[in-house]
Write a structure and sequence with these properties.
With about 450 residues, the chain is mainly beta. It has three domains: about 1-105, no CATH class; about 115-280, Immunoglobulin-like, CATH 2.60.40; about 280-410, Immunoglobulin-like (Sandwich). It has four helices and 30 strands. Strands 5, 6, 8, 10, 11, 12 and 15 form a seven-stranded antiparallel β-sheet that branches. Helix 1 crosses helix 3. About 35% of the residues are buried.
């Protein structure tokens, strides 16, 4: 101990344990359980020097009373005892005077934590553990990490988020933004991108946001950001649903783990328990049938679907073939089974327009259907899914086995002839009307003649 004290205090000449104890008592910057030994002050440097010197240690089980010889003791977490562990962290150095009786050493560090949130696209939505989205729509994600309360005891503090995206999600390249809220401030400072690296491992679809030393990060102006026990690190990024996304109750999960330095003075790291959020999207099965016989399905009917009241793109966007939204109307045509299948719909209301009826049938009046999910706020599970419509010619419901939204459009046989549009048909209607008028007039004249003859 005397040699380590001399390394930090050139005026020290002590050679005995008592002299070392006296120096420690005189130079202590604070006492009690609230004092954290900083890596930059004399006590922190002495602890690091003793570790490096390989001084023999006496194992003391955590939270267990152990009888020690009288003297000045330094308590540190043993090297390797926390390496690679989940939800474990080493204590900051603890200096204590022991008088030969039993002593219980309590760990001086709280665990870092991580949480993850996703923001639904409905108006005024807050950050939660679940959301529902349209195919190809950018989805907002947020990772929130805390740090060990004894971070000042670390020389450097390695800190990184590992976020595994499901196969149905694609990271939006370059979308990462990091902010830090400093102690006592609710304002988030944007972190300079030079303070971290954001990379995607495409083979595992894993996003990593890595801070080599969280204690040296800067803001966008290059000014140092103070990192202490109350610091909160927030990572924002976006991703979107792709063709591999699963529908309805088979949610698209997204899981993050935070890894951090977990033993002061030692190259050791631990990890948090993972945090998961989920994103839902819905499948539409639209079928056109003969209203007189619902087993007769009708091929060749064409429809457009507009997101007039959906969470995403309401009132302006049309559903495209892949379930995404676009400004141009896309026509879906029923197949030989009379059906249209669209994957990747958001919750909300859609307006359907039949642009072409099958031969021998009328087009139906424009109608809407609405997808109505209910989620469990605590678990993020889909607890109920319903669908409704505003048309008496349409039946909307949900397939309980797949949670697909079923919309059945019923149509009567017949030919719908417009009063305007095609000139030939308009003329035919006018000519027919003239013949009908002439026929009625002839019938009236004939009856009058008969009445006079009588």
């Amino acid at each position: 101990m005397n040699e380590q004290i001399k390394a930090v205090d050139g005026t020290y000449t002590g050679t005995t344990a008592q002299e070392a104890a006296d120096w420690l008592s005189a130079n202590a910057s604070g006492t009690g359980t609230a004092t954290v030994v900083s890596s930059s002050d004399a006590f922190g440097k002495i602890a690091s020097a003793l570790r490096a010197a390989g001084v023999s240690a006496t194992p003391v089980p955590l939270d267990t009373a152990t009888t020690l010889n009288s003297g000045y003791w330094l308590f540190v977490t043993t090297t390797g005892s926390t390496s690679g562990a989940t939800d474990q962290v080493g204590t900051a150095p603890i200096y204590a005077v022991v008088g030969g009786s039993a002593v219980t050493v309590d760990q001086k560090s709280d665990l870092p934590t991580v949480n993850k949130y996703v923001q639904n696209d409905a108006a005024n939505s807050s950050w939660k553990s679940y959301a529902d989205s349209q195919m190809s729509q950018s989805i907002n994600y947020k990772l929130v990490g805390t740090v060990a309360d004894v971070i000042s005891s670390y020389d450097t503090y390695h800190y990184y988020f590992t976020d595994v995206l499901g196969s149905g999600l694609t990271y939006d390249d370059g979308s990462v933004k990091v902010t830090v809220s400093e102690s006592g401030s609710s304002t988030e400072k944007t972190v300079n991108a030079a303070s971290y690296t954001a990379s995607l491992a495409s083979d595992t679809n894993t996003l990593t946001v890595d801070f080599p030393d969280l204690k040296t990060i800067t803001d966008t102006s290059g000014s140092a950001i103070t990192v202490d026990a109350n610091t909160v690190v927030t990572v924002y990024y976006t991703a979107h649903l792709n063709k591999n996304a699963v529908m309805a109750s088979e949610h698209n999960d997204n899981t993050v783990t935070l890894t951090y330095s977990n033993n002061p003075g030692v190259d050791s790291e631990g990890s948090t328990t993972p945090a998961t959020v989920r994103d839902y999207s819905y499948q539409l099965n639209l079928t056109k049938v003969d209203s007189a016989n619902s087993t007769t399905t009708l091929a060749g009917a064409s429809f457009t679907i507009q997101a007039t009241g959906a969470d995403e793109g309401a009132g302006t966007q049309y559903v495209q073939a892949d379930g995404s939204l676009g400004t141009d109307a896309h026509e879906f045509t029923t197949d030989d089974s009379g059906s249209i299948v669209v994957k990747g719909l958001d919750a909300g209301t859609y307006t359907v327009v039949e642009t072409k009826a099958p031969d021998g049938y009328n087009t139906v009046k424009d109608f809407t259907f609405t997808i109505l999910p209910v989620y469990n706020d605590a678990t993020g599970d889909l607890t109920r899914l319903t669908a409704n419509t505003n048309s008496s010619s349409v039946v909307a419901g949900v397939d309980e086995s797949t949670d697909a939204v079923n919309v059945v459009v019923m149509d009567k046989a017949g030919i719908s002839l417009p009063l305007t549009g095609q000139a030939g048909i308009t003329i035919a209607w006018v000519a027919g009307g003239a013949l009908l008028v002439l026929g009625v007039a002839h019938l009236v004249r004939s009856r009058r003649r008969d009445e006079r003859a009588e």
